[in-house]
Amino acid sequence: LRHFIGDGVGTRAGKGQLASILHSRIACDDQVTVENLTAMKERFADALALFPPGYHFDVIGYGCTSASLLIGEETIQA
Questions:
Q1: Are 40 and 66 in contact (CB under 8 A)?
Q2: Does residue 71 sit in helix, strand or coil?
Q3: How far is it, in rounded angstroms, from Cα 10 to Cα 7?
Q4: What does R_g of the chain's alpha carbons equal in angstroms?
Q5: Has residue 61 been placed in a domain?
Q6: Which residue range(s) make up the domain with 60?
Q7: For a disulfide at 67, which of 14, 25, 37, 77, Cβ 3.0-4.6 Å?
Q8: Tens digit of pLDDT for each residue in 2-55?
Q9: Is residue 2 part of a domain?
Q10: Residue 10 · residue 2 · CB < 8 Å
């Protein structure tokens, strides 16, 4: 696991702070188009539902730069 975790996470965990990394995926079409990237916003709830119920997140990242640009920062933050 150390190979996949950045130094910052290991440092915080070493100081007694709990650090967890969870991930999920959003279904997407095999064609990269404006319509398909924009449609990903309708699937956010499905992807979030895969996480443990009641889990407290300090940070959630969305790693699709192209879709983020099209969907908009305000929608992604909500």
A1: no
A2: helix
A3: 5
A4: 15
A5: yes
A6: 24-77
A7: 37
A8: 555 555 555 555 555 666 778 888 888 899 999 999 999 999 889 888 888 888
A9: no
A10: yes
Report if residue 39 sits inside a domain: yes
**What would the two tokens of residue 56 be?**
């407290």
Pair of tokens at residue 66: 């192209």
Question: Helices marked H in the chain — which ranges?
Answer: 7-14, 34-39, 44-48, 65-71, 73-77
Record the tokens describing residue 63, joined without a space.
């790693």
What's the whole-model pTM score?
Answer: 0.61
- Six token digits for residue 37: 């990237």
Domain presence at residue 4 = no
d(CA 12, CA 56): 17
16: left (phi > 0), else alpha (psi -120 to 50), else beta?
left
Number of domains observed in the structure of the chain: 1
